[in-house]
Structure formats: C-alpha cells, structure tokens
Amino acid sequence: MTATTDTREITYAEAVREALGQAMESDDRVFLFGEDVGTYGGAFGVTGDLVHRFGEDRVRDTPISELGIVGAAVGAALAGMRPIVEIQFSDFTAQAMDQIVNQAAKIHFMLGGAAEVPMVLRAPGGSGTGAAAQHSQSLEAWFAHIPGLKVVMPATVADAKGLLLAAIDDPNPVVVLEHKLLYKQSGPAPQEATRTPLGKAAVRRTGTDLTIVATGVMVSRALEAAEQLAAEGITATVVDPRTLKPLDEQTIVDTVTATGRALLVQEAPRSGGFMSEVSAMLCDSPAFGYLRAPVRRLCGLDVPIPYAPQLERAAVPQVPDIVAEATKLVREW
Amino acid sequence: MSSPEQWTHPQPGDSSAATAAKPTPEQVIAGLRATSEGGADLVQLLTPEGERVDSPEFDRYVTDIDGARLRSLFRDMTLVRRFDREANALQRQGQLGIWVPLLGQEAAQIGAGRALRPMDMAFPSYREHGVAWCRNVSPQDLLGIFRCSDHSGWDPVAARFHPYTIVIGNQVLNAAGYAMGQRFDGHVGDDDGEATICFFGDGATSQGDVHEGFVWAAVYDAPLVFFCQNNQWAISEPTERQSRLPLYQRAQGYGFPGIRVDGNDVLACLAVTRWALDECRTGNGPMLIEAFTYRMDAHTTTDDPTRYRLSDELEAWKLKDPIERVRAYLSRNGLADNDFFEEIAAEADNFAAEIRDFCVNMPDPPPDRIFSEVYAEPSPVLEAQRAEYLSYLDGFVGAGER
Fold first, then answer.
1. Second CATH level (architecture) for the domain A202-332
2. Are residues B53 and B113 in the same domain?
3. Which of the four pLDDT bands, split at 50, 70 and 90, describes residue A229?
4. Fewer CB atoms < 10 Å away: N or C end of chain A?
5. Regarding the domain delimited by A7-190, which CATH topology (the fold level of the hierarchy) does it fall under?
6. Which helix (H) or strand (E) holds A249?
7. pTM over 0.90
8. Which of A33, A36, A312 to mutate to test the interface with B (most CBs of B within 10 A)?
9. Tens of pLDDT along B338-356?
10. How many domains does one find in chain B?
11. Residue B386 sits in which domain range?
12. Residue A66 annotated in active site
C-alpha cells in the first residue's frame, strides 16, 4: 500500500483475474470452480486463461448445478481448502440459496466454532446489459440479512482486486457481488496483491452540502453527479461502503454529521433494500441530531428489470436522477 | 407393469426397444465416452443418407406419413431453419437483443411438435422455436421477446405452449405439476387422454429441478414426456461434464422408460414421441426421450463456440443434417421434384422477408409499461410512481423550444 506498489490501468475483470491468480500462486489451497470458468474463461471472460496457468485441477468446470457448486464449496472449505466459486449470474444464487443460507452461513455457529467455512462466492449482478428480469437483479440485501455471511460490492478496479483478496483471506463465507457493467471499465490497480480491508468504507470525494452513499455501479454515477453538482455550486461527499456486511457505520455517520444531509443511492428496488438499513442506522445514530433534511433514498423502481433497453434504463437511477434528487435535497432543505 | 424390470424396459411393439439400456463394463471404464456416441440403442428410421430403415417397434407409429406428409415435415423444418437464420442475422444487425439458434435441432423439434395432439401441453426451454411453430405460436410473437419489446407474447393456455423458460431446468417442475393435474382431473387413461411434453437440454439434466421433476412425475404416474435434446454442449461444457451414462438411461433409476432417438431424424422423433405420448395418455407415464442431436451454431449470439470446440466436429455433424436426409429420401423415391424444392425455397425467402419487415417495424413498448403487470391487481405504490414518471417525462415536451 506504499511506494513499493506499482499501479497501472487494467480493467475490472482483469483485476478480479489477477487477484484469483495471485491467490492461487501464493496458496495451494485456493481453487476455482463454476460453470464455463475453464476453457471458455467465464461467461464474462473473468477467469480467462487461468485454466491454462493453473490446470484443470484448480480451475474446474462443473455440471450446470448451482446448488451442487455451493455445496461442494462448503465441503471443500470445511476440509481445509479455500474454494472460490463463480455463479454465472447472481440471479442463480437463488438456485443455491439453501447451501448459502442454511449451511455456509451457519456451520461455524452451530458447531460452536469447531469448524470454519472460508469460501468465496463471486457473482455478477446488476442491470444495464439487456439481460432482462432473471439476469439483472441486485440481490445484496438477501445476503446482508443473513448472519454469518460477509458481503462486499467492489465499485472500483482496485477494490475488485483488493476486496477479493481480503475475502479469500477471510475465515468466513464471503459473497462478492461484482457488477456486469464494470467488468470492461479501466482504472488504476496495484500490481502487488494488496488487500482492501473488509468492513472499511471509502470516502471517494469530499464536500459540504450533502453526503451521497452509493454501492456498486452507483458509486461511479454518484461521482459523475457530484461533478455536475459542483458546477451548480453544490458540493457532495461520496461514500462507497464497499463492504455491506460488516458495514462501516462510523464513516457514514461521520460524513453525514459533517454535511447534515444524506442521499442513499442503490440500484436494487427500494422496498426492503440495503439503503433502507443505512437510513435506519443513520436515524438511530448521533448523526440524527445533525440532519438538516430527511434522509432520502434513491433506488431502483419496485419492478422487475424490464428487457426493453429504454425501460431498463428508466428502472434504475441514472446520473441525472442523482443530480436532480441531490439538488432538491439541498435547495429545499 | 408388474416389475421394475418391465417398467424400465419398455415394449412399444412386440419386442423391447431399450433392453440394451446398460453400459458395457468397457463403457463404464471409458466412462464418459458412453455419452458422446449415438450408440447401438439409437432409434433411427431415416439414415443421414436418406435411406429408410425398418423398425419393427416404431414403423407402426408413422404409417400415415406418406409423401405429402413427409413433404409437409420438410417444409416445416425448412421454414423454421430459415426463420432461425433470419433472426440470427437480425441480431447481428442490431435488430434483436439476443438470439438463441436452433440450427441443427429442426428434426427433434418438428418431430416432437408434430406428435402432439391439440389438447396436449408443451413446456419449452428457450430454444424451442420449432415446437412453437407446431403449436401455432407465430414467429412474430417469438421475435417480440428477443427484440426486447416484451417478455412473452402468447397466451400459454390457448396455445397449449408454456412461456419460454430462461432459467435452466425450471420448467421441468412446472411441467411435472401440470401433468399431475391432468391425471388428477381424470384426463388420462384411454386413447383420448391428454399428455404433457417438457423440453430441456443436456446441461439442464444436472439441475436439481430436473431430478425433482423426475421424482414427482414418477411417484404420481404423471402423463409427462421428458424430451431432452442432447445437443452435446451446455455453452462450453460437453455432455461428459453432466453425465457418465447416456442420459436416457437415467430414467431407469427413477422407474420409468428412457429411450434414445436420432434427434436429426424427423421421422424417428415423430414416431418415438407419438409412442411416448400415447403411453402417457393411456396412463403409463412418465417417459424420457433423449434426442441425440447437435447444436450447429452458438449457444446464443453472445457465445463463440470456436473458443471450445473444433470445426471438425461441426463438419461431421453437417453430414447428419436433419433436412438434407429428408430431401434425399423424397428425391430418390420420386416423392418430390425440383419444382417442389424450388417452391419451398421461394416460400422460405418470402417468409424471411415478412419476418424482417415485421421485426424492424415492431413498436417500442410505451414508457410506462414498466409499471404494468408487476402484480395481478393495480398497486397504489406503482400507480403513484407511474404518474410521477409520466409527469417527469412530460417536463421534456417542448423543453427544446425555451
């Protein structure tokens, strides 16, 4: 994390692949499996050439069976391995939920700590690729609701690498929700295997008028909105929680205390969403006394993601929506 | 029907069609090869060269297929293939969001589709354009889905054709439930009975859904034909990644018959599916058919098969083309002349032009479609969001003039 690290521009997908490769190089217990992760290199090209570098024993194509994939990972983790599984679309975690929720998350607790489940489940979520209702969901709230799971949503290239490396190190099951739209985006990332600690938010930009808390692909949209807002004389702090569970409440509370306004932005539908939890947390916190405006949530509509591209865009917050909502919040309060 | 041995070794005619439903020790040792060859158990009525081979068990199911009817099957397959190729081209030209090619699977789908009676029910995956054709679901309705205009464009009850199911294997459970209902409602038991057919692929057989569907259909004696099109590839994964046993042999473990048919032979697919549906409608369901075929194009237009398979394989399967063998048979036996083939080719061209014209002129859905049909009844929350969104959009009207 210092001068010894050479940083260069790579894509988000390359950053994930680099983390996987470095983890496998440094730890024989680490291996990957999932659908089309071998020769094909992953449905989104994330695993790429890893099968050629590490062989089919460590990069395994599995039967088309998500429940089997996660169940095998739980078993491997219990046996002392460090399995990393890819679920081709995060929507298909629904097929594997019993193993995730009833096994992976609970085994350590139910065995009184006698065993750990150090596994990583990677899955791409989110809309924007024209993949329709069953391939576009943002399901982070499901996982954040389950005690025993950790949940991260890398929003930058560096975090795609750093959070994944930290997740692989972690002795708990960690759900890593990548975003399909980010895979091809470029950004700086360290060459070395630098960890981004779990449970630590990033303040991406500092301002005085409001705090925007955003996750996943909404982080870059919030930053773009903040740029436009600055031209209008409104300055925003942008916080990227990075880890949803455990949540870095302190950073959110501190920044909202400083600005007095909070706009919480997520792609997922509002009802029962993760930002509802952040909103409630803020109202339970000392930041409440410093609020000059109601805490606002800007979320996806409470509808399945439509297939038609123009409707798909309308279903989730876009940059102009964030600008408009932030302007209203500052001007009206 | 007195012993499991008989249940798992069906006797469609005078003799057993699946007595060889066990791999040899050599096959077991070789393991995976058993899944990748047609094998001796393959039911075939028309060879790749277009020669009719006798089948004591199954000839009786296609005695009505004279020259006219075979020409009709040829026409079905040709038009469906032309539709498929046109849709693929439309996707490449940006007119469709995605396309799921059926190229190479025409015989399996037309054979199975034409075996259905009007009151039978069909549950497709997302590649069954040929079955949709047989169910009178128009290609135009299919295009709406793939152009991102809407999710599904037909009435599944009226068409007796369930909506396309995108998530792998889900429809098998739905089909099991439907077929159980047919039995509970007393629609099964004689020659006028109903049956259900469920389509899925080799990859889906690894899903828990398919296992559970097999179990439920079996223990409730559901009139359900499981129709597995083994097209050899689940995106990049060959069938060996799903099973070490020929897929049709799985049925034995669940207690119902399984049979493997040449999926590129429309006559055999028609005969075997008619037999299986008849068994089901008279009360002897369920049944598993493995149609041994080949996906000649990509998994979808987002896939690139050159990344994982050799072109030699495709070339080998081209010699088993489902349409060409029917053309050869019709020609050789004087059942069709050049005029017929030219007529069909011209019809296919016109059909493709109609499809293209319809596709590019399809209207976009209205912007507030997004709020419709989330729930069965109007939702006050969504209606409020609809009003807010429409008023937001109204704000842009005339905005350029100021």
1. 3-Layer(aba) Sandwich (3.40)
2. yes
3. very high
4. N
5. Rossmann fold (3.40.50)
6. helix A249-259
7. no
8. A36
9. 999 999 999 999 999 999 9
10. 3
11. 370-401
12. yes
